[in-house]
Each structure stands twice: as C-alpha cells, then as structure tokens.
C-alpha cells in the first residue's frame, strides 16, 4: 500500500474504476441467505459493560484512614510507640508488681493491697470534689411537709463551689482532737415592738437543756415566753409530744376558758411565739385541750394551729442590756430558697448567715474574724471546719456555735461538731433535745 495520502478525489476515482459486481439473487433470496447464516453463527451480544464501582472502595479507604487516626493516640498511651528506656522501665515496674503479688500470696500479708485500696479510695474522693450527687447532703436537708417547696429538700446543691464553702461528703473522721461536749439548746421567746411602733417581732434567747427532756423543756419555754396579758400559758398542766401522730404537740390546760378572752393582737403574738419556739423541734401542729377536751383559741376559733417548718438561719440582735439574742431568718425575712426554688441546704444557709447587708436592724451571728473553711458529713453528723483569728473572743465563738446549732435543728442532723484545726479544738453539740 502506498504511503501517499489518500484524498477524497483519489478514493472516488479508485472506486469508480473497480469492475461492477452484480448479484443475480432476488431480495427474498438474499434475506433467506442472511437468516440461514444467522442461525449457524448467532451474532455476539453487545451488552454494555458496567462501569467499575468506585464509591465503596473510596468509603472503605476513608474508614481505614479514620480508624488509624483514632487508634494512634491509644497506641501512644499504651506504650506501643514507647522508647526502649520507657519499655524497660515499664517492664521493671511489672516485675516489681509481680514480686509484690507473690509476696502477698506467700506471706499472707495484704498490706500492699490495702495501700492500693487506700489510693483508689483517695482518687475516688478527689473525683468527688467535682460536682457530684450529694446524697449525704440530700438526706441531711430533708424537710417536713409544710408546703411543696419544703418537701423538695434535695437541692442539687446547686453550685456549692460558687457559694464559698465546699460541702464534702467524707467517710474520714476529723483528726483526733480533744472534744468538749455541750448541752442541747432550746429557745425562749419574747415579742418586741419596733422603735416606731409599726411592727412586732420575736427575739429568741438560747437555754441549755440541762438534762431535761424535750417535753419538760417546752413546758418551761411556754411559761417563760407567755405573750398574753393574763399569763394564760401558766395554766398548761401537761405537754404531750407526737400524739396522736409525729410532729404534733398537745397543750392541755387546766382552765377551760384560758384562751377565750385573747385579743387579736394577743392571738397573733401567741402564734408567733409558738412558731418560733416549737417549729425548730420539728413540730408541725399544736393542739389545744382543756382537761382532754378540745379548747378553742380566742379570735382564731380553732383548737389546732399549723406551724411552718421552713426557716433558714439565725441572726444576731442585742437587747437593751447588750445581751445577745437571735432572730430567725423567717423573722428577718431572709431568703429561704436558692435560685432554683429549692430550700437552702445547710451549707448555703451558713453562707447566707455570713453575708448581711449594711444598714439592717440585725447582724451576722458569725463574726468577721471567723472563717468557715469546710463542711463535712458522716452519717447524721456534720463537721464545721473553721478558722478564727487570735482576736476572736469567746463570746463571738459562742454566738457562732449557738446560731449554727439552732440552724441545724431544721435538718436531719443528730450531732454538730465545730472543728478548729489550727487550734486543735472541737466543740460538739447534740442538735436535738432528747
């Protein structure tokens, strides 16, 4: 074949010069011949080839790369990429641990095991310093059924760290210091009038139980705190607690007309005195009887009185003689709930008691020279860890102890210890009067 390029004219001339080929068969003959040829050798299939899939291999490759990236830090942490020196150190550590295990097995000594358990417990305690479920604090802050708000005492303890005192649940006892035991406290009350005469308020004075039962103490309290003009409470013959149900007190009078002639002001004062002197002992209802029969109370016209169980904290006031007296957070109209609407827990209440705005008619019962460092719980006991400067007086410490003790009575605490670690001093109170 010539290497010359074929042009269209050249191709056309060449085809024209070719001899003519004639097929003498008819169209039908040609068709039959084609059909016979097709039967002998069928034409090959011309199906389209599928394109090779690319999505699945691509996804598989991406997954493999991601897996390697995720596993790489783990390999680094587990020592797969450690240096020879690190590997040798880890090997020595493992051999040492194996030797300790063998010694324990042979000698029957579990000292090392105990140390490991102690270390594990310490780590757990450290982790507990972070926001945790304060189940112990929750049980401490159980309230009574005065209202829906008071029932929900499981404040999540709501940002304990931000309040300035850390409430820590601890199984460790406070260091062995010499403990000074103090008597349980109760309070007597007196109703006073503001300087402008526009309002009345009830102030409290603490008293030592001195071995008396709660019923005996409360009988004395009511007689000493009588706000009526005729001293009608002096005719109370018997005080009965938790009958017919828990949280109930029955005052039985000898005079059937003892409370008939009360004025409206006297009736209100009586309600306040009963509220402030009885509710802190977890009393929710007062029943009045005369010789065992229901006794109606003057303008109230009822033989029972419901008490509120919600109070948070106590504050300091001074009478004309300069003696220390207290008012409850309820009387001072301090906040009873936190931002979440839950009643303040013990730690939150102590924090609030320290922070009294200037210009109030009452002041903090916790002197500026006293700093609460920590609050710990063990069962139904609370440990208030504090520090005090050298110029803190015994009177200031006593006021602090008493105010915190009265506050604790509204929680499910049995004992309250005030621990001054720097001075090695511990003062313990039985919270509830037996």
UniProtKB/TrEMBL annotation:
Keywords: Membrane, Transmembrane, Transmembrane helix
Record field: transmembrane: 54-76
Entry-linked Pfam families: Germane
All residue ranges annotated as the GerMN domain in the record: 201-295
InterPro entries: GerMN (IPR019606)
Biased composition (Basic and acidic residues): 1-30
Region of interest called Disordered, as start-end residue ranges on this chain: 1-52, 89-160
Compositionally biased residues, Polar residues: 89-106, 116-142
Superkingdom to which the source organism belongs: Bacteria
Biased composition (Acidic residues): 143-159
Identification of the protein by name: GerMN domain-containing protein
Source species: Paenalkalicoccus suaedae
């Amino acid at each position: 074949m010539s290497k010359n390029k074929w042009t269209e004219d050249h191709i056309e001339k060449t085809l024209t010069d070719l001899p003519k080929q004639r097929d003498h068969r008819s169209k039908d003959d040609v068709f039959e011949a084609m059909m016979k040829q097709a039967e002998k050798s069928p034409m090959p299939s011309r199906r389209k080839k599928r394109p090779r899939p690319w999505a699945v291999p691509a996804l598989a490759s991406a997954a493999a790369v991601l897996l390697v990236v995720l596993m790489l830090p783990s390999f680094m942490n587990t020592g797969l990429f450690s240096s020879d020196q690190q590997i040798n150190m880890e090997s020595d550590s493992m051999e040492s641990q194996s030797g300790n295990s063998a010694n324990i097995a042979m000698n029957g000594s579990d000292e090392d095991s105990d140390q490991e358990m102690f270390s594990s417990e310490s780590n757990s305690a450290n982790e507990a310093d972070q926001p945790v479920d304060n189940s112990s604090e929750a049980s401490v802050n159980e309230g009574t059924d005065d209202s829906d708000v008071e029932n929900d005492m499981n404040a999540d303890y709501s940002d304990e760290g931000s309040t300035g005192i850390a409430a820590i649940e601890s199984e460790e006892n406070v260091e062995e210091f010499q403990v000074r035991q103090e008597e349980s406290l109760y309070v007597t009350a007196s109703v006073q009038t503001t300087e402008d005469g526009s309002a009345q308020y009830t102030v409290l004075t603490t008293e030592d139980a001195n071995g008396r039962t709660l019923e005996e103490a409360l009988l004395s309290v009511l007689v000493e705190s009588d706000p009526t003009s005729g001293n009608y409470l002096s005719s109370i013959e018997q005080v009965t607690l938790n009958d017919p149900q828990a949280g109930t007190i029955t005052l039985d009078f000898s005079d059937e007309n003892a409370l008939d002639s009360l004025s409206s002001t006297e009736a209100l004062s009586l309600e306040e005195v009963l509220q402030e002197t009885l509710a802190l002992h977890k009393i929710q209802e007062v029943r009045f009887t005369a010789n065992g029969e229901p006794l109606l109370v003057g303008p109230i016209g009822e033989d029972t009185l419901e008490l509120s169980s919600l109070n948070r904290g106590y504050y300091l006031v001074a009478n004309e003689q300069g003696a220390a007296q207290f008012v409850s957070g309820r009387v001072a109209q301090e906040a009873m709930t936190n931002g979440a609407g839950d009643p303040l827990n013990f730690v939150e209440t102590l924090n609030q008691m320290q922070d009294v705005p200037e210009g109030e008619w009452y002041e903090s019962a916790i002197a500026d020279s006293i700093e609460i460092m920590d609050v710990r719980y063990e069962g139904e006991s609370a440990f208030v860890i504090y520090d005090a400067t050298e110029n803190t007086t015994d009177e200031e410490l006593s006021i602090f102890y008493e105010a915190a003790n009265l506050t604790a009575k509204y929680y499910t605490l049995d004992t309250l210890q005030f621990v001054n670690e720097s001075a090695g001093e511990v003062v313990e109170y039985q919270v509830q009067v037996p």
